[in-house]
């Protein structure tokens, strides 16, 4: 098999850690000796052990003389565990192939340097574009001090999320809803605005996917005016719940939600709303690398308007609701087409009777 084929295998392993390993990157590693896979690993829940450690333990003595395919440059710093670059050297690996360099200042080429200084043949840049997309959240936190943001819009054919009376369950079918749960699971946090929390009272948990590590549920509610009874309040212990609020939030409300088990976090207010950029930076400071935003329309528009949406997921159902239906996005203030947020289509797939499209933010 080619280097690209083995790296594709490593990338598929690394994706198993998405949403489960923050603030660490989700890495995959495959060890190959004499054309046979002798070890496989991916970053384990919570970020430890690393992919290379898992693969080396599985390979044992067979790692000596093997080629290691790693989706991100092996770490070079001493943290909770010794550096993976040194572990590869100690195991006698003969060659290391990586997809991309790690921009973390503690690594940033030092992992590759440790390998080369030990006489190991190092090649990098294999399936780099795929790795960059997989590592978008980790890279965003390192380079921009904020997580990657995915915005999901589930709409009718004409871009509506509810009828004029507010009826919205269910526009999309069961296959689409299961896909949404899988997307929640692959992100560190799920984010909605206060309007959606009040109107839908969502739990925002991953369900019907077996025993999984729940994403952090984040509600942006400037005044913390959320339902004190209902699904959200009853599910506080089902997974971490972070409530972002402004200075106007009543101390009694803050204390009441803290008593339930939620974490209340103050965020600066700008122009009467929670500052969107500061919101993401706050999540980044707490280790979040990937955020999955599920609306609502006004909050989604504010994130788009601020240029903070990195990835867009649209799910279109085969139903038309008309102009009187509720639009998926609030006002954006776009006067000319050139000012509109623009995205590049990555892939589409059918979900029962619905169509899912994934879009990445287009380069300026």
From TrEMBL:
<dbReference type="InterPro" id="IPR011549">
    <property type="entry name" value="RibD_C"/>
</dbReference>
<feature type="domain" description="CMP/dCMP-type deaminase">
    <location>
        <begin position="1"/>
        <end position="122"/>
    </location>
</feature>
<dbReference type="InterPro" id="IPR002734">
    <property type="entry name" value="RibDG_C"/>
</dbReference>
<feature type="binding site">
    <location>
        <position position="154"/>
    </location>
    <ligand>
        <name>NADP(+)</name>
    </ligand>
</feature>
<dbReference type="InterPro" id="IPR016193">
    <property type="entry name" value="Cytidine_deaminase-like"/>
</dbReference>
<keyword id="KW-0686">Riboflavin biosynthesis</keyword>
<keyword id="KW-0560">Oxidoreductase</keyword>
<feature type="binding site">
    <location>
        <begin position="296"/>
        <end position="302"/>
    </location>
    <ligand>
        <name>NADP(+)</name>
    </ligand>
</feature>
<dbReference type="InterPro" id="IPR050765">
    <property type="entry name" value="Riboflavin_Biosynth_HTPR"/>
</dbReference>
<feature type="binding site">
    <location>
        <position position="168"/>
    </location>
    <ligand>
        <name>substrate</name>
    </ligand>
</feature>
<keyword id="KW-0479">Metal-binding</keyword>
<feature type="binding site">
    <location>
        <position position="294"/>
    </location>
    <ligand>
        <name>substrate</name>
    </ligand>
</feature>
<dbReference type="InterPro" id="IPR004794">
    <property type="entry name" value="Eubact_RibD"/>
</dbReference>
<feature type="binding site">
    <location>
        <position position="50"/>
    </location>
    <ligand>
        <name>Zn(2+)</name>
    </ligand>
</feature>
<feature type="binding site">
    <location>
        <position position="170"/>
    </location>
    <ligand>
        <name>NADP(+)</name>
    </ligand>
</feature>
<keyword id="KW-0521">NADP</keyword>
<feature type="binding site">
    <location>
        <position position="184"/>
    </location>
    <ligand>
        <name>substrate</name>
    </ligand>
</feature>
<feature type="binding site">
    <location>
        <position position="204"/>
    </location>
    <ligand>
        <name>substrate</name>
    </ligand>
</feature>
<comment type="similarity">
    <text>In the C-terminal section; belongs to the HTP reductase family.</text>
</comment>
<comment type="pathway">
    <text>Cofactor biosynthesis; riboflavin biosynthesis; 5-amino-6-(D-ribitylamino)uracil from GTP: step 3/4.</text>
</comment>
<feature type="binding site">
    <location>
        <position position="200"/>
    </location>
    <ligand>
        <name>NADP(+)</name>
    </ligand>
</feature>
<dbReference type="InterPro" id="IPR024072">
    <property type="entry name" value="DHFR-like_dom_sf"/>
</dbReference>
<dbReference type="Pfam" id="PF01872">
    <property type="entry name" value="RibD_C"/>
</dbReference>
<comment type="pathway">
    <text>Cofactor biosynthesis; riboflavin biosynthesis; 5-amino-6-(D-ribitylamino)uracil from GTP: step 2/4.</text>
</comment>
<keyword id="KW-0378">Hydrolase</keyword>
<dbReference type="InterPro" id="IPR002125">
    <property type="entry name" value="CMP_dCMP_dom"/>
</dbReference>
<feature type="binding site">
    <location>
        <position position="84"/>
    </location>
    <ligand>
        <name>Zn(2+)</name>
    </ligand>
</feature>
<dbReference type="GO" id="GO:0050661">
    <property type="term" value="F:NADP binding"/>
</dbReference>
<dbReference type="GO" id="GO:0008270">
    <property type="term" value="F:zinc ion binding"/>
</dbReference>
<keyword id="KW-0862">Zinc</keyword>
<feature type="binding site">
    <location>
        <position position="196"/>
    </location>
    <ligand>
        <name>NADP(+)</name>
    </ligand>
</feature>
<comment type="function">
    <text>Converts 2,5-diamino-6-(ribosylamino)-4(3h)-pyrimidinone 5'-phosphate into 5-amino-6-(ribosylamino)-2,4(1h,3h)-pyrimidinedione 5'-phosphate.</text>
</comment>
<dbReference type="InterPro" id="IPR016192">
    <property type="entry name" value="APOBEC/CMP_deaminase_Zn-bd"/>
</dbReference>
<dbReference type="Pfam" id="PF00383">
    <property type="entry name" value="dCMP_cyt_deam_1"/>
</dbReference>
<dbReference type="GO" id="GO:0008703">
    <property type="term" value="F:5-amino-6-(5-phosphoribosylamino)uracil reductase activity"/>
</dbReference>
<feature type="binding site">
    <location>
        <position position="75"/>
    </location>
    <ligand>
        <name>Zn(2+)</name>
    </ligand>
</feature>
<comment type="similarity">
    <text>In the N-terminal section; belongs to the cytidine and deoxycytidylate deaminase family.</text>
</comment>
<keyword id="KW-0511">Multifunctional enzyme</keyword>
<dbReference type="GO" id="GO:0009231">
    <property type="term" value="P:riboflavin biosynthetic process"/>
</dbReference>
<feature type="binding site">
    <location>
        <position position="207"/>
    </location>
    <ligand>
        <name>substrate</name>
    </ligand>
</feature>
<feature type="active site" description="Proton donor">
    <location>
        <position position="52"/>
    </location>
</feature>
<dbReference type="GO" id="GO:0008835">
    <property type="term" value="F:diaminohydroxyphosphoribosylaminopyrimidine deaminase activity"/>
</dbReference>
């Amino acid at each position: 098999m080619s280097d690209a084929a083995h790296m594709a295998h490593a990338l598929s392993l690394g994706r198993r850690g998405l949403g489960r390993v923050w603030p660490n990157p989700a890495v995959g590693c495959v060890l190959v000796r004499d054309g046979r896979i002798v070890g496989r690993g991916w970053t384990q829940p919570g970020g430890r052990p690393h992919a290379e450690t898992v693969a080396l333990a599985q390979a044992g003595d067979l790692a000596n003389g093997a080629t290691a395919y790693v989706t991100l440059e092996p770490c070079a710093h001493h943290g909770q565990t010794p550096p993976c670059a040194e572990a590869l050297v100690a195991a006698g690996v003969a060659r290391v192939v990586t997809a991309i360099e790690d921009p973390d200042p503690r690594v940033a080429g030092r992992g590759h340097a440790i390998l080369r200084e030990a006489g190991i043949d190092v090649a990098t840049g294999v399936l780099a574009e795929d790795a960059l997309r997989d590592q978008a959240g980790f890279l965003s936190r390192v380079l921009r001090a904020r997580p990657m943001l995915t915005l999901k819009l589930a709409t009718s054919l004409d871009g509506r999320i509810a009828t004029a009376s507010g009826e919205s369950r269910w526009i999309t079918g069961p296959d689409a809803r299961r896909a949404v749960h899988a997307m929640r699971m692959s992100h560190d946090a799920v984010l909605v605005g206060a309007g959606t929390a009040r109107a839908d009272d969502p739990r925002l948990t991953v369900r019907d996917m077996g025993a999984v590590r729940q994403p952090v549920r984040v509600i942006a509610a400037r005044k913390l005016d959320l339902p004190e009874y209902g699904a959200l309040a009853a599910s506080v212990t089902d997974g971490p719940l972070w409530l972002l609020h402004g200075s106007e939030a009543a101390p009694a409300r803050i204390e009441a939600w803290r008593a339930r088990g939620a974490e209340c976090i103050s965020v600066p207010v700008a122009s009467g709303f929670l500052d969107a950029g500061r919101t993401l930076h706050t999540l980044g400071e707490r280790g979040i690398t990937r955020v999955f935003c599920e609306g609502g329309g006004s909050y989604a528009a504010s994130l788009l308007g601020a240029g903070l949406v990195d990835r867009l997921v649209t799910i279109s159902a085969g139903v038309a609701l008309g102009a009187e239906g509720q639009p998926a996005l609030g006002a954006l203030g776009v006067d000319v087409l050139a000012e509109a947020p623009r995205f590049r289509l990555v892939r589409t797939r059918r979900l029962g009777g619905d169509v899912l499209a994934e879009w990445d933010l287009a380069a300026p």
